[in-house]
Amino acid sequence: MPSQDIPGELRQYFEASHIALALADVTEDNPLLLVNEPFRALTGYDDAEVIGRNCRMLQRDAENRQPRAKIRSFLEAGRQASVRTTILNFRKDGKPFVNLLYMSKLTALSGEVRFLFASQFDVSRSQPELLSAYDNELGRTLSRLGPALAESGMVIEGSLMIIANTVATVAQAKLTLADLDAPGFP
Question: In sequence order, what E strands does 42-166 have?
């Protein structure tokens, strides 16, 4: 789906958001269609380097077995409306970070999934209050996104319940960080 098919309201919403957001196509390999400034700041990549590519490029050679399985299940299962997982990613400069990834499906009123919506947050070295602030902002983002999508005849699937697993998410991030700090990891 060409990027000009992204509703203007959604495009404006992305530009105004203070958290990292990405929008992907639902065609084969889910190429990125749109990213915002916080995404560019987080990853170090500019639009020309990511638009048209799958976001898995951020994983480089990392195994990420469990996160990949969760994402694959989300993408393949029609009933799963959203997913949240930590995943090891790499910035353009090669520095690793633990990404708290949230993904949801943006669906037309007809039921057709039109886009994949994603938000990213670096939990690598964050203090708990920053993660809590991000969770609050993500909740507000999802709440405010609804009316913008309604103008375009779309809805966001899933609920805020998936955000409620912050404690488990932080614990998983700490395990991943311990692996990053282990001898032998670049």
Answer: 82-90, 96-108, 113-122, 154-156
